[in-house]
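Late entry, evening session. Most of the bench is empty. Finally got around to the prediction I had been postponing all week. Sequence below, unchanged from the version circulated by S.P.
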Amino acid sequence: MIHFIAGLVRTDIETATVIFLTLNTSRARMDLVNRLSKLGKVAKEEQRQILALTDRIQKIGRLRNRYNHCIYAFDSNAEVSHTILMRIADRKDGIKMGQVEAINDETTHGIAAAIAELGKINRASWAFLHAFDYPR
């Protein structure tokens, strides 16, 4: 995201890093990049590619957040058996917390696919940065 910010703001990496670190969340950083791309200062194709990349990153981010914000429970063989989500969901007249999800082959395949997708997104991002001559 730092390189996207640098290119969109037309600044150096050091300044873009300060901007990046000033924002507290991945969501805020992504919103900044999306909004900067929509200002009308970049070509439509450039904007389209940025929005497509950030959309891919956001979709993978949901899975990352799920597994970063949970507790892992282990069975008697020291294998991960399930996760317990450490998030409070406010409902109209109560709260919901501690959602449990079993870890099975489907889950682990999904995680492996997400990791592979992150690699593809990373390569596509660097290709974009090179193609549009963003600071590197």
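Two things to note before I forget:
The two ends are 11 Å apart (CA to CA).
Residues 105-131 form the longest helix (27 residues).
Will write this up properly tomorrow.
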